[in-house]
Amino acid sequence: MVDTALKPTTDELVSRAAKLVPLLRERAGWMDENRRLADDVLEALVDAGLFKMRVPARFGGYECDLRTVSRVIAELARGDGSTSWTVAVWNISTWIAGLFPDSAQDEIFSTPGVRVCGILSPTATAVPADGGIVVNGRWAFNSGVQHSHWNTNSVILIGPDGEPQPVMTAIPVSELRIVDDWYTSGLRGSGSVSTVAEDVFVPQERVLAMGPVLHERYSSVLNADTPIYRAPLLPTACSTVSATAQGLARAALEAFQERLPGRKISYTGYADQREAPLTHLQIAEATVKVDEAEFHAQRAATLVDTKSFGGENWTTEERARVRLDMGAACLRAKEAADVLNTASGGSSIYSHVPIQRIMRDVQALNLHGVMHPNTNLELYGRIVCGLEPDTHYL
């Protein structure tokens, strides 16, 4: 059970995140240029306790519900998209670590302030070995790995009969080779480099079969009765990262409003952009889209919590709706940022102006394979039309 005397409230954690926004805005340019989180930002995140949100209570964690996590991550995105995204990945992967056998959790959470990152796409392979498996392969887009202790990565296990089976592995980052290949247009500060496994042995207690996981059959005994560990994997992950889109939409609106006073519209008669009816329409349109992004992100988190804490079974439509909400949050964030970017003038292309970085970060989210709006809207529409889903990632 969580010690409620030690666990911060949702409002307290959101307040801690809000207090970090000025630091994140100050350091965002440096992190964008250097393609990783700044050390003082990482230290501030640790001090705020934001890596404890999805850690089991018996290891000193807060076992926060998803609505709390979502609001915190959205708040961080107001300061910097890359920081928000990386914290989201750390919280997803830390939650996944809580699904592993309890002996594996004892090992993972023995490190104070442990940070766990991970990859769901099984782009590496493994073969059985005495007492475990041996992994070889490469994972791209490994957000936060340079500041992490453990990696929870998916692999394809090739059994003795040659039958492939997807499994999740927990591997110390020290046993992987890091490839500095994160040269991108967006979310640059996340440091989402590639990692490589070369004949890495993973003991059996740190191997999690994905088939049962995708049907909420997890290996932990001690976490089995805890509501947050009854939630399905994909809705949990999708709801978590949706919050970054929500927060970036809000960041775009705030960045535009901060630059607005005293600006003119060049080559027009408007000496003050605030007086132009076009500006009024743009701000109003963007505000609607920001609100819609928040609605979809928070509806998804609320559904996950409601089902998990109520011990209710999930329908296929509900699982797809979480992905619909994620895609809609990304799309509305992109639309809001585009409206405001269009209204920001030629000077906004300078690298020190936040709107250009926010726009690039939003674009990166919309291109993510799981988050892409078109993919998620098509999936939901397919199910509503009575067809079977064409993916296991639900």
Describe the structure.
The chain is of the alpha+beta class and 394 residues long. It has three domains: 10-108, Butyryl-Coa Dehydrogenase, subunit A, domain 1 (Orthogonal Bundle); 116-213, Butyryl-CoA Dehydrogenase, subunit A, domain 2 (Beta Barrel); 231-384, Butyryl-CoA Dehydrogenase, subunit A, domain 3 (Up-down Bundle). The chain contains eleven helices and seven strands. Strands 5-6-2-1-3-4-7 form a seven-stranded mixed sheet. β1 and β2 form a beta hairpin. The model has no long low-confidence stretch (mean pLDDT 95).
Characteristic key phrases:
394 residues; Butyryl-Coa Dehydrogenase, subunit A, domain 1; Butyryl-CoA Dehydrogenase, subunit A, domain 2; Butyryl-CoA Dehydrogenase, subunit A, domain 3; 11 helices; 7 strands; 48% helix
Helix fraction? Answer: 40-55%
Write down the overall mean pLDDT.
95
Q: What is the number of beta strands?
A: 7
Q: In what order do the strands lie side by side in the largest sheet? A: 5-6-2-1-3-4-7
CATH architecture title of the largest domain: Up-down Bundle
CATH class category of the largest domain: Mainly Alpha
Topology pattern, helix = H, strand = E: HHHHHEEEEEEEHHHHHH
Work out the radius of gyration: 21 Å
- Counting structural domains, the number is 3
Structural class: alpha+beta
